[in-house]
Amino acid sequence: MIMSQKSIKMNLVMNMIVTILNVIFPLITFPYVSRVLGPTGTGAVSYAASIVSYFSIFALLGVQTYGIKACAEVRGDKEALTKRVQEIMILLLCSTMLSYFALFVVIKRGMIHAFYEHIVYIYAVGIILQVIGMEWLYKALEEYRYIAVRSIMIKTVSIVLMFFLIREKQDYPMYAVINVFADGGAQILNFLFSFKHIKIKRYQDYHFKVHTGPLMIFFLTNVVHLVYTNLDIIMLEHMKGTYQVGIYNMALRIENILLSMVTALGVVVLPQLSVAIKEKRYDDFQKLNKKALNYTVAIALFFIAIFEIVAPECVNILGGTEYEESTLLFRILLFTLIMAGAANISGLQILIPLGKEKQFLLSVAGGALVDFVMNLIFIERLGNKATAFSTVTAELVVLLLQLWFMKRNGMPMPRLSVKPLFLAVLCFLTVGFVKKIVPIPNPVFACIVFGTIYGLMWLAMANLIKEEITLEIQRTVLNKLGVRKKNG
User: Looking at residues 83-107, what average pLDDT do you find?
Assistant: First the structure.
């Protein structure tokens, strides 16, 4: 039987809390840290973190997604779950040893400046912590309440440590230690509590081959995605310089915050979809995907319309007036919310549970190729605008390829409700007009006022035209507050 919508909504709320925490943590700490440590200290830590991230990708292979799918399929059988977790963990420990060996060789051959070595070693500890943390196991078991509570505790402690222990410029190694703890502390707790869900037992008949193929495909997908997301910046810097990169990066950072919230639903429903496919409950699979798609698209349209209106104010608040040019780029990148949100459904929630990991990889590779070619052709003439357009186009290509693969597999895209689109257009035109005739100079106050008007109008019109997603969220909130509408 498919999981109740109340559980899905609760898991979504908990996952969004974790997502928002991951966004808020650097927003709170970085302004303080950057002033104390200065560009040299923060630069050293950022550089070391970026180097270790590449080795971390190899160590983890593609387990962040595959582990959820694989464990969800056997989560009702503790014996089978234990064995599957052990099989995956043995493979990860092997890849981790190879990753550490490669990192050690890189350091000893002087490929990393001696100034950064001790910071690299600190961040390297985080690799093994991510491996033993088994975050994918908890997501497969849908332990989102535990993940959220654990994240709040660790992030709060990390913030306190940051303000108490980072006092002078030479404290940058401690900054690296706290950053590793902010993530690694949660992974240690995961490891300790994992024995509630799996047994301490050794098996004689491990089956590794069944995991190696999918893990390598997810690993290659992560590599391709990393390359083409970083390629934008590299090509833009090479062809137009660091100023245009800085302007583009500000727009991209804001867009990524919104995108993480739009796609938060995908990982929540993946375990249920994997179980539905294994048990051949195709009707449940279709119903859940339809619900997830409509939720995702409604949230994406809600964000696109309001942030198109207050884009200048958002850029001003986060970057100041010197980033004014980022506004247009941010408005372009906002359309990735709908493309990537829908692709999150077609890829993560349909192709992967169906076992079509290779097709998922091909779709991402297709987007990467288009992104590279468009940047190569247009950056020289259009600069960072070309990079923004290329990103949106690449996400569209990924989505179209996934829709094509779905059709080939006899799995049509679930139907969309047009009511959220109607609401987005109506609220955008109305609030946009109000903003033009009643301008507010203060960017923070403007965001609050126009955001409030927009939200209230959306809610009122949703009740008027009976838009299901908004009404369902409204009912959930009212029930949590102990308020129930009569006859509702």
Answer: 92
Contacts 24+ apart (CB under 8 A), 234-242: 235/372, 235/375, 235/376, 235/379, 235/387, 236/375, 236/379, 236/383, 236/384, 236/387, 239/379, 239/380, 240/379, 240/380, 240/383, 240/384
180 has a pLDDT exceeding 60: yes
Q: Give every CB contact of residue 406 below 8 A, 6+ residues apart in sequence.
A: 346, 350, 351, 412, 413
Using a 10 angstrom Cβ sphere, with 0-12 exposed, 13-18 middle and 19 or more buried, the burial of residue 25 is: buried
Residue 281 DSSP code:
-
Q: Collapse the DSSP code of 46 into the 3-class scheme (helix H, G, I; strand E, B; otherwise coil) and give the result.
A: helix
Interior angle at CA 22, CA 16 and CA 28, nearest 5: 125
Residue 209, pLDDT > 70, answer yes
Question: Distance of CA 337 to CAs 119, 254, 351, 458, Å?
Answer: 35, 12, 20, 19
For 24-138, strand residue ranges (E) read: none
Alpha-carbon separation of residue 69 from 266, 393, 456 (angstroms): 12, 29, 39
Residue whose C-alpha is closest to residue 298's, from 465, 414, 416, 456: 416
Of 173, 186, 161, 171, nearest in space to 29 by CA: 161
For the stretch 251-290, pLDDT in tens is 887 888 788 778 766 555 656 666 666 667 767 777 777 7
For residue 24, CA distances in Å to 21, 108, 264 come to: 5, 37, 16
Can you give the length of the chain in residues?
488
Structure tokens at 166: 């980072």
Radius of gyration of the chain (CA): 23
CB of 272 closer than 8 Å to CB of 336: no
Could you give the CA distance from residue 478 to residue 454 in angstroms, rounded to a whole number? 20
Instruction: Check residue 318 and give left, alpha or beta (phi > 0: left; psi -120 to 50: alpha).
Output: alpha
DSSP 442: S
Q: By mean pLDDT, which of 48-62, 427-441, 469-483 is the weakest?
A: 469-483
The encoded tokens of residue 442 equal 């203060």
Tokens 């002087």 locate to 110
Q: Which residue has the tokens 């009643």?
A: 438
Amino acid at residue number 340: A
